[in-house]
Protein backbone atom coordinates (compact mmCIF):
# COMPACT_ATOMS: atom_id res chain seq x y z
CA UNK A 1 0.00 0.00 0.00
CA UNK A 2 2.66 2.46 -1.01
CA UNK A 3 1.93 5.88 -2.46
CA UNK A 4 3.87 9.03 -3.13
CA UNK A 5 3.34 11.41 -0.22
CA UNK A 6 2.92 15.11 -0.84
CA UNK A 7 4.36 17.90 1.26
CA UNK A 8 1.10 19.27 2.71
CA UNK A 9 0.24 17.82 6.11
CA UNK A 10 -3.47 18.12 5.38
CA UNK A 11 -3.08 16.34 2.04
CA UNK A 12 -1.07 13.51 3.58
CA UNK A 13 -3.67 13.13 6.30
CA UNK A 14 -6.42 13.00 3.63
CA UNK A 15 -4.57 10.20 1.85
CA UNK A 16 -4.00 8.17 5.00
CA UNK A 17 -7.61 8.66 6.11
CA UNK A 18 -8.76 7.38 2.73
CA UNK A 19 -6.70 4.23 3.30
CA UNK A 20 -8.27 3.73 6.74
CA UNK A 21 -11.81 4.46 5.53
CA UNK A 22 -11.79 1.69 2.94
CA UNK A 23 -9.35 -0.57 4.83
CA UNK A 24 -10.84 -0.48 8.37
CA UNK A 25 -8.09 -2.67 9.82
CA UNK A 26 -5.75 0.31 9.40
CA UNK A 27 -7.52 2.01 12.30
CA UNK A 28 -5.16 -0.12 14.37
CA UNK A 29 -1.92 1.77 15.04
CA UNK A 30 -0.01 -1.53 15.02
CA UNK A 31 -1.32 -2.47 11.56
CA UNK A 32 -0.58 1.05 10.27
CA UNK A 33 2.98 0.53 11.40
CA UNK A 34 3.13 -2.80 9.56
CA UNK A 35 1.72 -1.11 6.44
CA UNK A 36 4.35 1.60 6.63
CA UNK A 37 1.99 4.58 6.88
CA UNK A 38 2.04 5.35 10.61
CA UNK A 39 5.00 7.76 10.41
CA UNK A 40 3.34 9.72 7.58
CA UNK A 41 0.02 9.79 9.43
CA UNK A 42 1.62 10.91 12.69
CA UNK A 43 3.68 13.60 10.98
CA UNK A 44 0.64 14.95 9.12
CA UNK A 45 -1.47 15.07 12.29
CA UNK A 46 1.35 16.79 14.16
CA UNK A 47 1.77 19.50 11.51
CA UNK A 48 -1.96 20.22 11.45
CA UNK A 49 -2.24 20.24 15.25
CA UNK A 50 0.66 22.68 15.59
CA UNK A 51 -0.85 25.02 13.02
CA UNK A 52 -4.28 24.95 14.69
CA UNK A 53 -2.80 25.35 18.18
CA UNK A 54 -0.97 28.49 17.04
CA UNK A 55 -4.22 30.02 15.73
CA UNK A 56 -6.11 29.19 18.94
CA UNK A 57 -3.38 30.65 21.17
CA UNK A 58 -3.36 33.85 19.15
CA UNK A 59 -7.15 34.09 19.40
CA UNK A 60 -7.08 33.58 23.19
CA UNK A 61 -4.27 36.12 23.57
CA UNK A 62 -6.23 38.67 21.54
CA UNK A 63 -9.32 38.09 23.70
CA UNK A 64 -7.32 38.62 26.91
CA UNK A 65 -6.52 42.16 25.77
CA UNK A 66 -10.20 43.01 25.29
CA UNK A 67 -13.05 43.65 27.70
CA UNK A 68 -15.74 41.00 28.18
CA UNK A 69 -18.47 42.98 26.31
CA UNK A 70 -16.15 43.29 23.31
CA UNK A 71 -15.51 39.54 23.35
CA UNK A 72 -19.22 38.72 23.71
CA UNK A 73 -20.09 40.98 20.79
CA UNK A 74 -18.00 38.80 18.45
CA UNK A 75 -19.90 37.08 15.66
CA UNK A 76 -21.05 33.72 17.05
CA UNK A 77 -21.39 32.37 13.51
CA UNK A 78 -17.60 32.31 13.30
CA UNK A 79 -16.58 28.86 14.53
CA UNK A 80 -13.47 29.87 16.47
CA UNK A 81 -15.39 32.57 18.36
CA UNK A 82 -17.99 30.00 19.39
CA UNK A 83 -15.40 27.38 20.37
CA UNK A 84 -13.31 29.76 22.51
CA UNK A 85 -16.47 31.07 24.16
CA UNK A 86 -17.36 27.50 25.16
CA UNK A 87 -13.80 27.15 26.49
CA UNK A 88 -14.16 30.26 28.66
CA UNK A 89 -17.47 28.96 30.05
CA UNK A 90 -15.95 25.59 30.93
CA UNK A 91 -18.03 23.65 28.41
CA UNK A 92 -14.99 22.87 26.23
CA UNK A 93 -11.47 21.96 27.23
CA UNK A 94 -8.56 23.25 25.16
CA UNK A 95 -8.32 19.79 23.60
CA UNK A 96 -12.00 20.00 22.60
CA UNK A 97 -11.32 23.31 20.82
CA UNK A 98 -8.33 21.78 19.02
CA UNK A 99 -10.26 18.65 18.03
CA UNK A 100 -13.23 20.57 16.64
CA UNK A 101 -10.98 23.05 14.84
CA UNK A 102 -9.06 20.14 13.36
CA UNK A 103 -12.28 18.76 11.86
CA UNK A 104 -13.13 22.14 10.30
CA UNK A 105 -9.68 22.55 8.73
CA UNK A 106 -9.49 18.92 7.66
CA UNK A 107 -12.88 19.00 5.97
CA UNK A 108 -12.52 22.35 4.20
CA UNK A 109 -8.90 22.71 3.11
CA UNK A 110 -8.50 20.57 0.00
CA UNK A 111 -12.16 20.28 -0.99
CA UNK A 112 -12.71 24.02 -1.39
CA UNK A 113 -9.38 24.56 -3.14
CA UNK A 114 -10.15 21.77 -5.60
CA UNK A 115 -13.67 23.07 -6.24
CA UNK A 116 -12.29 26.50 -7.18
CA UNK A 117 -9.52 25.10 -9.38
CA UNK A 118 -11.74 22.58 -11.17
CA UNK A 119 -14.29 25.32 -11.87
CA UNK A 120 -11.60 27.55 -13.41
CA UNK A 121 -10.29 24.57 -15.39
CA UNK A 122 -13.74 23.76 -16.78
CA UNK A 123 -14.38 27.39 -17.68
CA UNK A 124 -11.05 27.44 -19.51
CA UNK A 125 -12.17 24.37 -21.47
CA UNK A 126 -15.63 25.86 -22.16
CA UNK A 127 -14.93 29.58 -22.74
CA UNK A 128 -18.51 30.38 -23.78
CA UNK A 129 -19.64 29.82 -20.20
CA UNK A 130 -16.66 31.73 -18.83
CA UNK A 131 -17.63 34.82 -20.85
CA UNK A 132 -21.21 34.71 -19.55
CA UNK A 133 -19.92 34.55 -16.00
CA UNK A 134 -17.49 37.40 -16.70
CA UNK A 135 -20.26 39.63 -18.04
CA UNK A 136 -22.36 38.99 -14.93
CA UNK A 137 -19.45 39.82 -12.61
CA UNK A 138 -18.33 42.83 -14.63
CA UNK A 139 -21.81 44.32 -14.39
CA UNK A 140 -21.53 44.11 -10.60
CA UNK A 141 -17.88 45.17 -10.35
CA UNK A 142 -16.98 47.49 -13.26
CA UNK A 143 -13.37 48.02 -12.18
CA UNK A 144 -10.56 45.48 -12.13
CA UNK A 145 -8.22 45.00 -9.21
CA UNK A 146 -9.16 44.20 -5.64
CA UNK A 147 -12.74 44.80 -4.55
CA UNK A 148 -14.95 43.85 -1.66
CA UNK A 149 -17.63 41.22 -2.20
CA UNK A 150 -20.49 41.17 0.29
CA UNK A 151 -22.79 38.29 1.10
CA UNK A 152 -25.57 40.15 -0.73
CA UNK A 153 -23.31 40.33 -3.80
CA UNK A 154 -22.84 36.56 -3.82
CA UNK A 155 -26.61 36.10 -3.87
CA UNK A 156 -26.78 38.18 -7.06
CA UNK A 157 -24.27 35.95 -8.89
CA UNK A 158 -26.96 33.79 -10.43
CA UNK A 159 -25.02 32.44 -13.39
CA UNK A 160 -21.88 31.86 -11.33
CA UNK A 161 -24.04 29.79 -9.02
CA UNK A 162 -25.10 27.59 -11.96
CA UNK A 163 -21.46 27.20 -12.97
CA UNK A 164 -20.26 26.24 -9.50
CA UNK A 165 -23.06 23.71 -9.04
CA UNK A 166 -22.35 22.16 -12.44
CA UNK A 167 -18.63 22.00 -11.71
CA UNK A 168 -19.29 20.10 -8.47
CA UNK A 169 -21.68 17.82 -10.32
CA UNK A 170 -19.19 16.90 -13.04
CA UNK A 171 -16.22 16.80 -10.63
CA UNK A 172 -17.51 16.40 -7.06
CA UNK A 173 -14.82 17.43 -4.53
CA UNK A 174 -15.48 14.20 -2.59
CA UNK A 175 -16.32 11.42 -5.08
CA UNK A 176 -17.22 8.70 -2.57
CA UNK A 177 -18.65 8.90 0.93
CA UNK A 178 -19.04 6.02 3.37
CA UNK A 179 -21.74 5.38 5.94
CA UNK A 180 -22.50 2.52 8.32
CA UNK A 181 -26.08 1.34 8.80
CA UNK A 182 -27.33 1.86 12.36
CA UNK A 183 -30.25 -0.53 11.73
CA UNK A 184 -31.57 -2.80 9.00
CA UNK A 185 -32.27 -0.67 5.93
CA UNK A 186 -34.69 -1.63 3.16
CA UNK A 187 -33.85 -0.10 -0.23
CA UNK A 188 -36.43 0.97 -2.80
CA UNK A 189 -35.80 -2.25 -4.77
CA UNK A 190 -36.70 -4.35 -1.74
CA UNK A 191 -33.16 -5.43 -0.81
CA UNK A 192 -32.47 -5.21 2.94
CA UNK A 193 -29.03 -4.00 4.03
CA UNK A 194 -28.31 -5.44 7.51
CA UNK A 195 -27.34 -3.30 10.48
CA UNK A 196 -23.61 -2.64 10.85
CA UNK A 197 -22.76 -2.78 7.13
CA UNK A 198 -20.42 -0.12 5.77
CA UNK A 199 -21.78 1.42 2.55
CA UNK A 200 -19.85 3.43 -0.04
CA UNK A 201 -22.02 5.96 -1.90
CA UNK A 202 -20.55 6.66 -5.34
CA UNK A 203 -21.27 10.38 -5.76
CA UNK A 204 -19.07 10.71 -8.87
CA UNK A 205 -20.97 8.20 -10.99
CA UNK A 206 -24.38 9.17 -9.63
CA UNK A 207 -23.72 12.78 -10.66
CA UNK A 208 -22.94 11.53 -14.17
CA UNK A 209 -25.87 9.14 -14.50
CA UNK A 210 -27.67 9.65 -17.82
CA UNK A 211 -30.84 8.29 -16.24
CA UNK A 212 -30.81 11.30 -13.91
CA UNK A 213 -29.06 14.05 -15.86
CA UNK A 214 -29.85 13.20 -19.46
CA UNK A 215 -27.73 12.24 -22.50
CA UNK A 216 -25.08 14.92 -21.90
CA UNK A 217 -24.60 13.99 -18.23
CA UNK A 218 -20.87 13.45 -18.65
CA UNK A 219 -20.09 16.88 -20.05
CA UNK A 220 -20.05 20.36 -18.52
CA UNK A 221 -23.16 22.45 -19.08
CA UNK A 222 -24.41 24.93 -16.43
CA UNK A 223 -27.89 24.74 -17.98
CA UNK A 224 -28.33 21.51 -16.04
CA UNK A 225 -29.09 23.74 -13.03
CA UNK A 226 -31.59 26.07 -14.64
CA UNK A 227 -34.80 26.06 -12.55
CA UNK A 228 -36.81 24.17 -15.19
CA UNK A 229 -34.11 21.48 -15.47
CA UNK A 230 -33.45 20.92 -11.77
CA UNK A 231 -37.01 21.25 -10.43
CA UNK A 232 -38.06 17.62 -10.94
CA UNK A 233 -34.74 16.03 -9.92
CA UNK A 234 -34.71 13.90 -6.79
CA UNK A 235 -33.31 15.99 -3.89
CA UNK A 236 -30.53 13.41 -3.44
CA UNK A 237 -29.54 13.35 -7.11
CA UNK A 238 -26.99 16.10 -6.43
CA UNK A 239 -25.03 15.72 -3.19
CA UNK A 240 -21.56 17.33 -3.40
CA UNK A 241 -21.81 17.99 0.36
CA UNK A 242 -23.73 14.75 0.99
CA UNK A 243 -27.25 15.12 2.39
CA UNK A 244 -29.32 14.67 5.50
CA UNK A 245 -28.34 15.10 9.14
CA UNK A 246 -24.73 14.04 8.42
CA UNK A 247 -24.12 16.50 5.60
CA UNK A 248 -21.16 18.89 5.53
CA UNK A 249 -21.62 21.48 8.29
CA UNK A 250 -19.59 24.03 6.35
CA UNK A 251 -21.36 23.79 3.00
CA UNK A 252 -22.78 27.32 3.07
CA UNK A 253 -19.42 28.85 3.95
CA UNK A 254 -17.72 26.74 1.27
CA UNK A 255 -20.09 28.01 -1.43
CA UNK A 256 -19.77 31.65 -0.35
CA UNK A 257 -15.96 31.56 -0.15
CA UNK A 258 -15.73 29.77 -3.51
CA UNK A 259 -18.00 32.34 -5.18
CA UNK A 260 -16.03 35.26 -3.75
CA UNK A 261 -12.75 33.74 -4.95
CA UNK A 262 -14.11 32.91 -8.40
CA UNK A 263 -15.66 36.37 -8.81
CA UNK A 264 -12.36 38.11 -8.11
CA UNK A 265 -10.36 35.79 -10.36
CA UNK A 266 -12.79 35.85 -13.28
CA UNK A 267 -13.18 39.63 -13.13
CA UNK A 268 -9.42 40.14 -13.37
CA UNK A 269 -8.27 37.28 -15.62
CA UNK A 270 -9.34 35.23 -18.62
CA UNK A 271 -8.45 31.54 -18.21
CA UNK A 272 -7.59 29.26 -21.11
CA UNK A 273 -6.04 25.85 -21.69
CA UNK A 274 -5.13 23.61 -24.61
CA UNK A 275 -5.99 20.51 -22.56
CA UNK A 276 -9.23 18.96 -23.89
CA UNK A 277 -12.02 18.01 -21.50
CA UNK A 278 -12.25 14.54 -23.08
CA UNK A 279 -8.67 13.76 -21.98
CA UNK A 280 -9.32 14.27 -18.26
CA UNK A 281 -8.51 11.09 -16.34
CA UNK A 282 -10.10 11.01 -12.91
CA UNK A 283 -8.55 9.23 -9.94
CA UNK A 284 -11.03 8.57 -7.15
CA UNK A 285 -9.49 9.22 -3.73
CA UNK A 286 -11.00 10.65 -0.57
CA UNK A 287 -10.95 13.86 -2.63
CA UNK A 288 -11.15 13.84 -6.42
CA UNK A 289 -7.76 13.83 -8.16
CA UNK A 290 -6.64 14.12 -11.78
CA UNK A 291 -3.98 11.88 -13.26
CA UNK A 292 -2.73 14.87 -15.25
CA UNK A 293 -3.51 18.36 -13.96
CA UNK A 294 -4.06 20.75 -16.90
CA UNK A 295 -2.03 23.94 -16.93
CA UNK A 296 -4.04 27.14 -17.20
CA UNK A 297 -2.99 30.28 -19.05
CA UNK A 298 -4.02 33.60 -17.54
CA UNK A 299 -4.62 36.79 -19.48
CA UNK A 300 -5.21 40.08 -17.67
CA UNK A 301 -8.64 41.60 -18.31
CA UNK A 302 -9.42 45.30 -18.60
Automatic annotation (TrEMBL):
<dbReference type="GO" id="GO:0016705">
    <property type="term" value="F:oxidoreductase activity, acting on paired donors, with incorporation or reduction of molecular oxygen"/>
</dbReference>
<keyword id="KW-0472">Membrane</keyword>
<dbReference type="InterPro" id="IPR036396">
    <property type="entry name" value="Cyt_P450_sf"/>
</dbReference>
<dbReference type="Pfam" id="PF00067">
    <property type="entry name" value="p450"/>
</dbReference>
<dbReference type="GO" id="GO:0020037">
    <property type="term" value="F:heme binding"/>
</dbReference>
<protein>
    <submittedName>
        <fullName>Probable cytochrome P450 313a4 isoform X3</fullName>
    </submittedName>
</protein>
<keyword id="KW-0503">Monooxygenase</keyword>
<keyword id="KW-0492">Microsome</keyword>
<dbReference type="InterPro" id="IPR050196">
    <property type="entry name" value="Cytochrome_P450_Monoox"/>
</dbReference>
<dbReference type="GO" id="GO:0005789">
    <property type="term" value="C:endoplasmic reticulum membrane"/>
</dbReference>
<keyword id="KW-0479">Metal-binding</keyword>
<dbReference type="InterPro" id="IPR001128">
    <property type="entry name" value="Cyt_P450"/>
</dbReference>
<comment type="function">
    <text>May be involved in the metabolism of insect hormones and in the breakdown of synthetic insecticides.</text>
</comment>
<feature type="binding site" description="axial binding residue">
    <location>
        <position position="248"/>
    </location>
    <ligand>
        <name>heme</name>
    </ligand>
</feature>
<dbReference type="GO" id="GO:0005506">
    <property type="term" value="F:iron ion binding"/>
</dbReference>
<keyword id="KW-0349">Heme</keyword>
<dbReference type="GO" id="GO:0004497">
    <property type="term" value="F:monooxygenase activity"/>
</dbReference>
<keyword id="KW-0256">Endoplasmic reticulum</keyword>
<comment type="similarity">
    <text>Belongs to the cytochrome P450 family.</text>
</comment>
<keyword id="KW-0408">Iron</keyword>
<dbReference type="InterPro" id="IPR002401">
    <property type="entry name" value="Cyt_P450_E_grp-I"/>
</dbReference>
<keyword id="KW-0560">Oxidoreductase</keyword>
Amino acid sequence: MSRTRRTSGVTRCWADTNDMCFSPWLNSRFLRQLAGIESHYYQAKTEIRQFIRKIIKKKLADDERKTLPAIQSKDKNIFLNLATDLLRRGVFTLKNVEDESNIIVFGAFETTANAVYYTLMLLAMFPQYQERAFEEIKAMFPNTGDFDVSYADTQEMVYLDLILNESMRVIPPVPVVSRQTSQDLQLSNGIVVPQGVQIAIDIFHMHRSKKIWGPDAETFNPDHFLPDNIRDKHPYAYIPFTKGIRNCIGWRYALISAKVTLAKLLRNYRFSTSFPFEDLYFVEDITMKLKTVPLLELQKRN
